[in-house]
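ok posting inputs for the iron/sulfur cluster job
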Amino acid sequence: MTTLRVPDFVHDSSLPPLPCASHRIDPDLFFPHWSDSTTKQLAEAICGPCPVRDACRAHGRDQRERGIWGGETETQRRRAVNVPRKGTSKRRVRT
Ligand code: SF4
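and the output
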C-alpha cells in the first residue's frame, strides 16, 4: 500500500484553488500509463498556470513520488535529479 505524503501547500488557505483540486479534474490524469502521452500532456497543461508549480515539482522530486507533480513526469523527474526508479537499486550488477 502506498501512502501519499501531502505537501504543505495543499493546506495553505491563502492560495487560490489548485487546478488539480477541481471536482472536474480526474485525479487519474496525474498518474497516466507511461505510454499515454496524451494524458501526460493534459496533466502538464493543467499544472502550467498553477501558483505552486515549483513547490509541487520540488515535492515530487524530494519524495520521489509517482505520477505527475508540478507538470513533471516521473521520467523527467528521474532525469532531472538523476535517481533510479523507485524500488530499484542504485547499481545494477551485470552477470
Ligand atoms: S502543479 Fe501540483 S498542485 Fe498544481 S495543479 Fe499540478 S499537481 Fe496540482
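notes: The radius of gyration is 14 Å. Helices lie at 37-47, 53-62, 74-81.
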